[in-house]
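Pilot study result, target chain (77 residues):
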Amino acid sequence: MKTMGISKFKTHALKILDQVAKTQEIIVVTKRGIPLAQITPYRNADINPKPGILSDALVFEKDIVAPLGEDMWDACT
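Predicted structure:
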């Protein structure tokens, strides 16, 4: 991970952004030696995951009324 002063970043911003896109390297922009911002390459995330990807994470109950009993279920509604 590279670090760079803010004045250099301001002067060469477009060139630096092209470099980040090309090399996929993260650059930290500093002001007086203190980290101010982090320039990271864009990674195209899959916005629409594949169908069924979370199917193992869910638990399906056959009867949602039975654990409470019918009397308790009526009281909850």
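One observation from the pilot: The domain at 2-42+50-76 is CATH 3.40.1620.10 (YefM-like fold). A full batch analysis is planned for the follow-on phase.
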